[in-house]
Amino acid sequence: MFKVKDGVDINDLKNMSPFTLLILADVCFFAHQHNIEVVLTSLMDSVPGRVFKGHAEGRCFDVRSSNWPPSLIEEIQCLINTKYSKIAQISKADGIPRACVYHKISDNEYHFHFGVRPNAEIDYLIIP
User: Fold this and answer.
1) Distance CA 99, CA 63 (A)
2) Which residues make Cβ contacts (< 8 Å) with residue 112, sequence separation at least 6?
3) FRET partner for 67 with CA separation of 20 to 30 A, picked from 2, 29, 42, 116?
4) How many domains in the chain?
5) Alpha carbon distance 59, 19 (integer Å)
6) 10 Å Cβ neighbour count for 11?
7) Exposed, middle or buried by CB within 10 Å (0-12, 13-18, 19+), for 53?
8) What is the pLDDT along the chain (128 residues), one digit of tens a residue?
9) Which domain covers residue 120, as residue numbers?
10) Are strands 97-98 and 89-90 parallel, antiparallel or unpaired?
11) What is the number of other CB atoms lying within 10 angstroms of the CB of residue 41?
């Protein structure tokens, strides 16, 4: 259902938060419905300049977006952010919970960043 970019250790999935894996499964299901390949570009790997601990703690993952049409980029953001708002990571910029952020870092390409807050609990996870 997904591929990993060279250098990404697939074994990191064993140490990731179950909430993060739930979001990954949902992303893969959505992509499968729309015939889009999911390419994981970052799991728990260390990246120079990264100050946020979410990846190292197994709460975040990144997905390549270059093969996603613009309409589906908006749709997956809306779906994931709505469905997982109770466990989503909180933006330091505006305090809004977002489980999916579509963004660009420095000279890199745009990509999806998915993540959950450190204190995510099953009690907060309500799936409509």
Assistant:
1) 13
2) 27, 62, 63, 64, 65, 73, 76, 77, 100, 101, 102
3) 116
4) 1
5) 8
6) 9
7) exposed
8) 799 999 999 999 999 999 999 999 999 999 999 999 999 999 987 776 666 788 889 999 999 999 999 999 999 999 999 999 989 999 888 999 999 999 887 777 899 999 999 987 766 555 55
9) 2-124
10) antiparallel
11) 20
Amino acid sitting at position 62: D
Residue pointed to by tokens 């779906």: 79
